[in-house]
Structures are given as structure tokens and as C-alpha cells.
Automatic annotation (TrEMBL):
GO terms for biological process: glycine biosynthetic process from serine; methylation; tetrahydrofolate interconversion. It comes from the Bacteria. Keywords: Amino-acid biosynthesis, Cytoplasm, Methyltransferase, One-carbon metabolism, Pyridoxal phosphate, Transferase. It is found in: Cytoplasm. Homodimer. This is Serine hydroxymethyltransferase. (6S)-5,6,7,8-tetrahydrofolate binds at residues 122, 126-128, 245. Catalyzes the reversible interconversion of serine and glycine with tetrahydrofolate (THF) serving as the one-carbon carrier. This reaction serves as the major source of one-carbon groups required for the biosynthesis of purines, thymidylate, methionine, and other important biomolecules. Also exhibits THF-independent aldolase activity toward beta-hydroxyamino acids, producing glycine and aldehydes, via a retro-aldol mechanism. Thus, is able to catalyze the cleavage of L-allo-threonine. The keyword Transferase applies. The lineage of its organism: Bacteria, Bacillati, Actinomycetota, Actinomycetes, Micromonosporales. The modification N6-(pyridoxal phosphate)lysine is found at residue 231. Residues 10-385 form the Serine hydroxymethyltransferase-like domain. The gene is glyA. Its EC number is 2.1.2.1. Its main location: cytoplasm.
Amino acid sequence: MHVPPIPHLTAADPELARLVEGEAQRQHDKLRMIASENYVSEAVLEASGTVLTNKYSEGYAAKRYYEGQQFVDQIETLAIERAKSLFGVDHANVQPYSGSPANLAVYLAFLNPGDTVLGMSLPMGGHLTHGWSVSATGKWFNSVSYGVSRETGLIDFDEVRDLARRERPKVIFAGGTAIPRTIDFAAFAEIAHEVGAVLAADIAHIAGLIAGGAHPTPVGHADVITTTTHKTLRGPRGAMILSTEEHAKAIDRAVFPGLQGGPHNHTTAGIAVALREAAQPDFRDYAAQVVANAKALAAALVERGFDLISGGTDNHLILADLTSKGIGGKPAAKALDRAGIELNYNTVPYDTRKPFDPSGIRLGTPALTTRGLTEAQMPQVAVWMDEAVTAAVKEDDGTLDRIAGEVHDLLASYPMPGYKA
Ligand SMILES: Cc1ncc(COP(=O)(O)O)c(C=O)c1O
């Protein structure tokens, strides 16, 4: 059963309610290992589903274009103050609708169309919005990309420096969507300062690890920091932009009125709750456990012959090239899903296959750590993954279904926030 219960929805729209219940059950029964996903707390769920969704609040606290902001102003201010205190920054904007608009706001704040941006290329682990060709950021700006070393799988700072010196970007993005190693924000800052670029750290994936002390912070190195709120930070789907005081006005103007209209106040409330949760001592334990689980899983996968990009992980995320297993990422991901293990197919650096049928898979431990799994279960997860990939090669659906049953049985002992059996 969905928690909090949805009796009104069930009565008013049983068809939709059935689908929501089905999704709750699916999230309960699957080992969810999509690196960008998590389970929010019931408090976050409740805050995100309140009457705040009824309210328009264009503008910022005490400077709105609509009346009736007596409570919304306080809610947004609470979220802002919590974000500032958690990350130790001068300024926070909690209005971006999601990570992509947050990054677009950085372009609007610091660049004009045609200006140069330097970001990590998508197939190497960067995000679409860091200037990739199919994104507006790649179409409207002169985008230059850096990657990782073919040998080590690590960011090649000599390449970043050479590109920055040659191309003189106005903005450099540090961060990405498939980076299994610690990001050296100080090294990026040195390069950005040398060429006079704004350093934007996109910490969407690792915000919760940073808040929990399990990854170095970009604060003090980056001029602006963008993040989603729904990955390791374990909040509702949304985003924030953090910055020094120097850039506060430019960022605020870019978000509203530059890109957006009214903020999603129900989401802002959910973000405020998630930030409060992330400031508690047990969130530090959570962040450390996410990394411990990923390291234990990576070691167990390597033992079973998986070829991991960079050889392992420092954070919550693992990127594996399945070429040595004799299967592409897509058929493997589909087989794993049937086996109750949910992850995504992904390009790997220097992939010779197409993005829709790449060589790799990407997986992570934020969600299963929220369920309460520890290092003790990671060898078993690696065994299941190995068996499922082998079964996929042999088209052995029986084995996949047997694993799905075992995954289901294991997860029955690990409660899911938002679901009651
Ligand atoms: C590093 C990074 N930045 C930005 C985004 C965009 O976030 P959203 O999907 O909320 O637009 C993502 C999403 O996966 C991401 O991984």
C-alpha cells in the first residue's frame, strides 16, 4: 500500500490510483540501482503533496508579483536558509524546476548565445546540459568538451587545461552523470581562474555525499554550484543553485524572470524537509554507507570478472563495460530488470557502440542504502548480477525469474519509505 495512503485518489480515479499502487509495489520489490534515484522519506512525500501546489508565487520572498504569500515566503526562506547552512554557502536559489533548468540558468547568467562553454562530454560521463550537441546548450553556445584518459578512466586535467587555454571558455562545468571517482574541484578552479572562466560545479549526483561529508565540497572552489535535490540528497524532484554573494543577483535574475514563472511551492516544501533531514547526524552515516556499499559491490563485481571503468568507485556510482561478458549494455539491463535488479544501460568512455545500444551499464547504491542494505549483502548482489548477465547471454529466462524471486525475498526484510506491505 502506498504511504501516505491515497483513499481520495482511489475513489476519484481508480485507474490512476491502481497505477500509483503498482509503482509503489514495483519500487518495493526491485533492487533499485539506478544511480540517480532514491527513496524519499514519508515526511518529504507528505510535504510534496500539500495544498502548496495551489499557490502562485512569482518572484522572491517579500518581492512577489502575487498576494497571499504569508506562508509561502516563510517556506521558501526556510528552504534557502537550510540550504545555505547545510552546504556553507552565501546564497541559495531553490526555485529551479529541475537540474536541467538550473544549468540553463547558469548559461543565462554568465554567457550570451555563441559564447564558449567547456564541459565534460556526454559519452565520457558529462551531462547533456554541459554543452552536448543535441542539447540547447550545445546548439546555442560554442561548446568544447573534455573527457577521461583511455588508460585510467580519470579526468585528464592536462587536456582540460590545454582546452581552456586555447578556447578561453566563459564557463567551465565540473561534474557529471557517470563519474565513479572523486571530482577534484580545486584542480578545476585553478584552471578556471587562470583563464578567467566562471567555474560551475554540477553536484547533482553527489550532493548528498557532500552534505554528509563523504565527498569533498566544491564550496570555496566553484563560483556557482548547481544540484538536483532528488538523487543522493534524497529530496523531491527539484534543483538548487548555490553561489557566492558576488553571483547571487545574476543567478536569481536568470531563474526568475529569466527562465521560469512561478516556483513549485509544494516541491520547495519537500526540499526544505529533505535539507533538514540531511543536516541530521544519521545522514552522515547514510552518506558513508552509500560509499561503503558501492566500494564493496565494485570489489565483488571485479572479483566476478566485471570490467569497471577506472577500476572501481570512490562514490555511489559504478560504470561497467560488459564487452568482456559478451553482451551489450541494453540487453543486459533488460535481463537484469527481469531479474529484479533495476539499472540503466550507459555509454562507456571511448564506446565503439551507439548510445541507444552501448557497451555499458551504470548502477549505484543510494536507494538500496536507504532501504538498509549494507556491505554484507553486496557480494550476493554481485552474484545475482553475474548470474543474470550470463543468463541473458544464454537467453535463460528461468534463471532471471529465479533471481527475481530471491531479490523479492531479500527485500521483504528491508522496509521502504512510502510503502507498507
Ligand atoms: C550531473 C547532472 N546534472 C543535471 C542533471 C539534470 O537533472 P534533471 O534530470 O532533473 O533535469 C542530471 C540528471 O541526471 C545530472 O546527472
